DNA sequence: TTTTTACATAAGTATATACTTATATAATGA
DNA sequence: TCATTATATAAGTATATACTTATGTAAAAA
């Protein structure tokens, strides 16, 4: 049933840490250590949330050198739904700017 | 933090039974026994979901004779967010029509 | 080659959640 | 008045969830 799939998607987004992760990835791709720095949570906690998001297909990962970069999967069935939720949330640019200013943003070709 | 409030709202909607209840109430006000009939679940289960929705302010209740009618609270802070989620879901008119046809729709002034 | 950094994962734990069954209440109807 | 109907709620239970700590792995750096 369609409602069940949507309910599962909302449950996935219905956690403040995951909602923040997705909001940040909506600004720019990030590696795990950047998310750990922004969200001030343990690395395993962040990794476990990322795994849930990845298992659901909402995010993709790309290995680059020692880092794993996560990004939103724009091909996801519910990407439009997720974007309409974001339209009701403030953007998260400040977190990215703060990383840049602190000089700890990971840039990788 | 705003993200936390939105996450809590999404968690509330992130249950297929509650999402269905809200979708149905988006069509028309209903009393508990109609929701029990539509959703084919036990009355206490439905009542408990309704309580969660009411505690959060998403629905309102009105007593009429022996029935308690529930309706969406259009004044809710996140009503617009909820509506944008509905725009990604099929409508639930068929359930209401079925009740009418079966002659078990509760009409009350 | 050894250490460090970045990340994943396993195991354990505390809490939350969604039901069930049983029971209480209040309005209606016989 | 007594039975029925509509609803709420309490208590119990099974499962899910979100962390923690500990540990493993792979790449980079020293």
UniProtKB/TrEMBL annotation, chains A, B:
<dbReference type="GO" id="GO:0003700">
    <property type="term" value="F:DNA-binding transcription factor activity"/>
</dbReference>
<protein>
    <submittedName>
        <fullName>HTH-type transcriptional repressor AseR</fullName>
    </submittedName>
</protein>
<keyword id="KW-0804">Transcription</keyword>
<dbReference type="GO" id="GO:0003677">
    <property type="term" value="F:DNA binding"/>
</dbReference>
<dbReference type="InterPro" id="IPR036388">
    <property type="entry name" value="WH-like_DNA-bd_sf"/>
</dbReference>
<dbReference type="InterPro" id="IPR001845">
    <property type="entry name" value="HTH_ArsR_DNA-bd_dom"/>
</dbReference>
<keyword id="KW-0238">DNA-binding</keyword>
<dbReference type="InterPro" id="IPR051081">
    <property type="entry name" value="HTH_MetalResp_TranReg"/>
</dbReference>
<keyword id="KW-0805">Transcription regulation</keyword>
<dbReference type="InterPro" id="IPR036390">
    <property type="entry name" value="WH_DNA-bd_sf"/>
</dbReference>
<feature type="domain" description="HTH arsR-type">
    <location>
        <begin position="1"/>
        <end position="93"/>
    </location>
</feature>
<dbReference type="Pfam" id="PF01022">
    <property type="entry name" value="HTH_5"/>
</dbReference>
<dbReference type="InterPro" id="IPR011991">
    <property type="entry name" value="ArsR-like_HTH"/>
</dbReference>
């Amino acid at each position: 049933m369609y409602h069940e799939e949507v309910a599962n998607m909302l449950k996935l987004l219905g956690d403040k840490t995951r909602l923040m992760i997705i909001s940040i990835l909506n600004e720019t791709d990030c590696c795990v250590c950047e998310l750990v720095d922004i969200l001030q949570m343990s690395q395993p906690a962040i990794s476990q949330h990322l795994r849930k998001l990845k298992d659901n297909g909402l995010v993709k990962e790309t290995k680059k050198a020692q880092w794993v970069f996560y990004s939103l999967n724009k091909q996801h069935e519910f990407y439009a739904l997720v974007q309409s939720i974001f339209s009701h949330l403030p953007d998260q640019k400040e977190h990215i700017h703060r990383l840049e200013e602190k000089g700890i943003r990971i840039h990788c070709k």
